[in-house]
Here is the input.
Amino acid sequence: MSAHVDIIIPTYNGYQHLAHCLNALRAQTHDAFRVIVVDDASTDGTPERLHRDWPEVEPLLLPRNSGLVTAVNAGLALSEAEYVALLNNDTEPEPGWLAALVDALDRHPKAAAIASKMLLFNQRDTFHAAGDTYARNGRPGNRGVWQRDSGQFDCEEEVFGACAGAALYRRSALDEVARIDGAILDPSFFMYCEDVDLSWRLRLRGHAIVYAPAAVVYHHLSATGGGPLASYYVARNTLNVILKDLPGSLLWQNLRAIVADQVRDAWQTLPHVREPAARARLCGVLAAFRSAPLMLAKRRKIQRARRVSIADLERFLDQ
Here is the structure.
């Protein structure tokens, strides 16, 4: 029997993209799924349009705008399926997308997550991500980003992490890390890098993450994000991940590269300080220092619960 999946789609004032995404889900070859759209207090008529045009969708209407992480966690709390897919509202999955994800998770019992092959919506031969990477200098990244798809990422293989814009998760693994950290996605991240943090926490518990090239999805890059807000949270949360998730030996071993990268980034940002995005990036770095006590407190619990070797984690750095 085909695995049942709950697909959780957070949205905020993005109905023009959401409708396209829901149309693509109607064409999925794997039909054992439920769609939960978490509306983060949109003002563009999303709730009314969902009720009118998408009777098969289960809407979850939040009373106030609470941010991406809170919206996704609310959807996860409503979900009951053993397999849970997280999907951005500005995506278009191919008809075989969900079937390929389910097939991969079925075949990899040690995997907690399956990463999609994400291509740009308006440039469909170009990668957004073939799984996530993590560099020794503490920078998360998208494997293959901006590369033309010429078959270089057509092999199913283990990767560091999965971009939560289009990924399938095993619910038991999500619940496991939530018991340690208090939530599946860390609410203190608010938005951006929350999936990097999740990938780290899954890996620290010894779970695998696999990239499935047959699970193709097209993404409107930054259609529902970007700008100074993104600059602030990416800068802050990049440092939050380092403080919270890197085991001590990896942090010490790569500290020089981490510091050099942060100094270089600040130095390149300073000449543009009058620009909103540059100011937001610097403010994000300062905010990371303010949130350091919270991250260090979380770190103690997460690192105590680690059950994988440093050597195993190092295999995926600079992948």
Notes: The mean pLDDT is 94. Residues 276-304 form the longest helix (29 residues). The radius of gyration is 19 Å.
